[in-house]
């Protein structure tokens, strides 16, 4: 009975591995930003990721997990990082689309030149990440590189500052 239950848990982990490693972004040209891409397919990726996290949580709560404890703990850590990175990617892309749209359709850029100098970092980060994804659309690969999340968090912080400057300008 123990061996059968352990095998069932192992099969569940292997299914998660196959599902997660098969997740891919779709890309399209980012018209407002040279050599950059827009990412698509977030809904499907998030859905499969959430299901996978539930599966791994079930494995971890089983009485028969002892032989698979280390592997299931590694998977839950990886999946949590993947989720955090995915959320940062979505935020960054949404904010960037908004900011680029405002900058290309208004004269606000002349007034906020200091804040916009920091946008060079954001554009570089987005260009780098979106180009990597365009070359290798594996969502899990790009989101489990620590530097990706660090860069996205920095870009999101700058985008937040730029958006606050927009609000002040419009008041």
What is this structure's SSE topology?
Elements: H1 2-21, E1 26-29, E2 37-40, H2 42-61, H3 69-104, H4 108-111, H5 113-117, H6 119-135, H7 139-143, H8 146-170
Antiparallel strand pairs: 1-2
Within the largest sheet, what's the order of strands? 1-2
| Helical fraction | over 70%
Radius of gyration: 20 Å
Structural class: mainly alpha
Task: Tell me how many strands there are.
Answer: 2
Strand residue percentage: under 5%
**How widely separated are the two ends?**
69 Å
Shape: elongated
How many helices? Answer: 8
**Poorly predicted sequence stretches spanning 5 or more consecutive residues:** none
Please state the average pLDDT score: 93
Please trace the helix and strand order, writing H or E for each element.
HEEHHHHHHH
The major pleated sheet works out as: 2 strands, antiparallel
